[in-house]
């Protein structure tokens, strides 16, 4: 009996918040924008980001937690952009490739944290692809894995798809900066509309709401 009571007490706050979140009426123009007439055929959550963006670094823990909260069969897809003025597009594309190599090896979140820390906490910089290579190897990505991945057709195809998606949403004036979060290709999350006290819970609930939205 005592064990059941303790379990109830532990989970009561979480359940109470979940119930409250479910009852929130998220509003177009406040919590999200409709940016396309039709949603994607399959549910998806897409984030545009850049390792050079300090706001993306701040958002990264929330993005990683969001990914773990998504329904089965849905994952957060991250597209690294190349349009920030702080580095040549080619170097930004090299970072995108390096991230994909790490992600495909099951190390995406960890290496993302490493790169963000290198650029924003250590305030270091990359001059070329070799600098990126040195950082990843120093953080336990095998040299052979990095070298083979960076010339892999599959990796290059994935980065090309990122670029194509970036160009599409930029031309549609949906992608206006980073981080940008899109749900089902139709709904743009407005971070300013989310609770600052319970940002993670509100973000997770809003994305779940938009994934299930039929119109």
TrEMBL record:
Stretches assigned to coiled coil: none
Keyword line: Disulfide bond, Periplasm, Redox-active center, Signal
The Thioredoxin domain, residue ranges: 8-160
GO CC aspect terms: periplasmic space
Tagged with keyword Signal: yes
Cell location: Periplasm
Family annotation (PROSITE patterns): THIOREDOXIN_2
Cited InterPro entries: DSBA-like_thioredoxin_dom, DsbA/DsbL, Thiol_disulfide_DsbA, Thioredoxin-like_sf, Thioredoxin_domain
Any one GO molecular function term: oxidoreductase activity
Disulfide pairings: 53-56
Chief location category: periplasm
Signal sequence residues: 1-20
Similarity annotation: Belongs to the thioredoxin family. DsbA subfamily.
Protein name from the UniProt record: Thiol:disulfide interchange protein
Organism from which the protein derives: Rheinheimera mesophila
């Amino acid at each position: 009996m005592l064990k059941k009571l303790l379990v109830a007490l532990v989970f009561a706050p979480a359940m109470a918040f979940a119930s409250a979140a479910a009852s929130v009426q998220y509003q177009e123009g406040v919590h999200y924008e409709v940016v396309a007439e039709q949603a994607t055929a399959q549910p998806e959550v897409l984030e545009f980001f850049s390792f050079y963006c300090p706001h993306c670094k701040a958002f990264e823990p929330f993005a990683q937690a969001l990914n773990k909260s998504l329904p089965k069969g849905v994952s957060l897809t991250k597209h690294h952009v190349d349009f920030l003025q702080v580095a040549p597009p080619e170097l930004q594309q090299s970072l995108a490739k390096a991230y994909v190599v790490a992600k495909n090896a099951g190390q995406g979140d960890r290496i993302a944290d490493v790169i963000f820390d290198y650029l924003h906490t250590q305030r270091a910089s990359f001059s070329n692809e070799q600098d990126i290579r040195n950082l990843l190897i120093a953080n336990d990505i095998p040299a052979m894995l990095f070298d083979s991945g960076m010339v892999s057709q599959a990796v290059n195809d994935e980065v090309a798809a990122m670029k194509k998606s970036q160009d599409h949403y930029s031309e549609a004036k949906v992608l206006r900066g980073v981080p940008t979060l899109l749900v089902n290709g139709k709904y743009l999350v407005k971070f300013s509309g989310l609770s600052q006290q319970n940002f993670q819970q509100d973000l997770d609930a809003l994305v779940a709401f938009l994934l299930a939205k039929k119109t």
